[in-house]
Write a structure and sequence with these properties.
Largest sheet: 8 strands, mixed
Bound molecules: uracil
Number of domains: 1
CATH topology: Rossmann fold
Low-confidence stretches: none
Shape: globular
CATH class: Alpha Beta
Mean pLDDT: 97
Length: about 200
């Protein structure tokens, strides 16, 4: 399922409706897949007929999309975590140097128990994600409570991110071949945000 959805996202001729739908579906697959990473509590539940055992997540989640592409991952993750705290981190990268800078951060209150899911569909150099982790750590998070969720990553982005943030969890649907000279992922899918939001700058 992941490969068919990524193929739709890669295809330059995919219309925006189908592109958004595939992004939402791939986000849903990742939200289900990463479920096993997070601690559960057991509980009793009363059905109309009997009392039985059940499970729930032990701690409420915090969802933090990296603006703006990460916004595409918010609806699928909110569907499974409707009570999650939600924060936003805005980074932009200098087009020449590809070095990211922070332009916005707004985080909800959290404790060191809350799993924090950092949402960014594309990990190119890994710089924006590493900067976002620093913002979370400055706000009191510890690395092992953070998981980065992504559709496509470059091998060099993963290597750099894991070097900078060794204890952060990583859930990636596809590792691609590499980066071009403008630090775009190859073969990739182009600019995720432009294609999802229908902009072209
Ligand atoms: N972000 C994108 O949207 N695409 C890339 O190829 C790299 C970063």
């Amino acid at each position: 399922m992941k490969k068919t959805l990524i193929t739709i996202l890669r295809n330059r001729n995919t219309p925006i409706e189908q592109y958004r739908q595939a992004a939402d579906q791939l986000g849903t697959v990742l939200a289900v897949e990463c479920d096993s990473l997070f601690p559960k509590a057991t509980l009793f539940v009363d059905t109309p007929l009997a009392r039985t055992h059940g499970v729930c997540f032990k701690h409420e989640f915090v969802l933090v999309p990296i603006l703006r592409s990460g916004l595409a991952l918010l609806p699928p993750f909110m569907r499974f975590h409707p009570g999650a705290g939600i924060g936003f981190i805005g980074t932009r990268r200098d087009e020449k140097t590809a070095i990211p800078e922070l332009y916005y951060a707004n985080l909800p209150p959290f404790t060191q128990d809350n799993p924090i899911l950092l949402l960014d569909p594309m990990i190119a150099t890994g710089g924006s994600a590493a900067l976002a982790v620093k913002v979370l750590k400055d706000a009191g998070a510890v690395e092992k409570q953070i998981t980065l969720i992504s559709f496509i990553a470059s091998p060099e982005g993963i290597t750099r991110f894991q070097k900078d943030c060794p204890e952060v969890g990583l859930v990636v649907a596809q590792v691609d071949e590499g980066l071009d000279e403008q630090k775009r992922i190859l073969p990739g899918l182009g600019d995720f945000g432009d294609r999802y939001f229908g902009t072209n700058d």
